[in-house]
Write the structure tokens for this entry.
Amino acid sequence: MTINYKTVPSVCPYCGCGCGVYFEVMDGEVVGTMPRMSHPVNEGSLCIKGWNIHEFITSKKRLTDPLIRKDGSLKAVEWDEAIQHTASELKRIKEQYGPSSIGVLCSAKCTNEENYLLMKFTRAVLGTNSIDHCARL
Amino acid sequence: MQELKDKVTQALKEQTLDGLLCLKSSGGYILPCIVTSDNIADLDSMVIGDERYPIATILSAIVAKQPGKTIGVVVRGCEEKAIIELIKSNQVDANRIVQYGVACSKERAQLCSCEVPYPSEILAGTKVEGVSDNQLLSKIEAMPSKDRLSFWMDQLGKCIKCYGCRNICPVCFCEDCAMEHDDLVPTGLVPPSIPSFHLIKAIHMAGKCIDCGFCEQVCPMNIPIRTIYRKMGLVMKEVFDYEPGLSIDERSPLGELEKGLEAVAEK
């Protein structure tokens, strides 16, 4: 069998900086992360999160399905059900307690466009200014 | 460069080599890769350019995961030294690697302030003179000890505990790292407990550090950590007349010390 090792250029997904990384892939498995030395953002450096990105890719703790709490415990459900449930609950809470009762947290792991969309949704649809990002948690 | 490519091509075709670890240029990136007989044409995009990656560390990971394979590796001066240290520490089997030496450019030597920017045999690149820069060390040594301590506490206090200096270090390979030990380095603190966090690594570097400068190169906070290891190196040289990375046969005096301790323990 031939030696199967390669490095794949990517961008760190943890925050908005966008540091350049290489993933080390051996026999189809991502086994390491290293900084891209001439990347204009990080110039060869990474923070502790960036150095360890490869660990979460295969983490058993990763969410793979949407979950809804039913009878006190989280149950995996289909996306349609999850979206339907979220929409009707947000609607109910807004009607019952007013828009100010809802707050939204977005994520630096999302794209600019996704975060823009969430901001629009929060202000225009939910009708509240209470939106913030994960770095404030 | 052609000589290097010809040698590797021949070795891959004759199957004396199963693969070559080198840097290649692809889509605007310089990246570490393995060239095998399946993708021999990749040798055309091989570079020995100015970008530096932890080749010795990658080599030791590949050798560990590919039992029975013989792996070629394109090495700079520092990487040759690192591989010598890895062989001495039983991290790489010398019989399973073939080294192809390349000389670094003047620019690279200056960036790294490298005293010996070439390996023992050179197949590509032009040998240039080394750069000796001990300005910071002399400056620090000229300080009164009180100022010296505050200099280092200020510098080490910048640390964001990314572990980059350890991750990139070609001679750091312990699976159980003292820098992650809860009793020595309490979790959840930034900066980590100083100066002990950095001194743990400094002590481990005595008789091992080959002064490649990778630790400083990847430090996001520009801490002149290499200066500490350099001083350790100078002490090793003065006291024990020992320099790591030069010979596979010459063992670190600290390794010998370990033997002495075992003897004491036996008694």
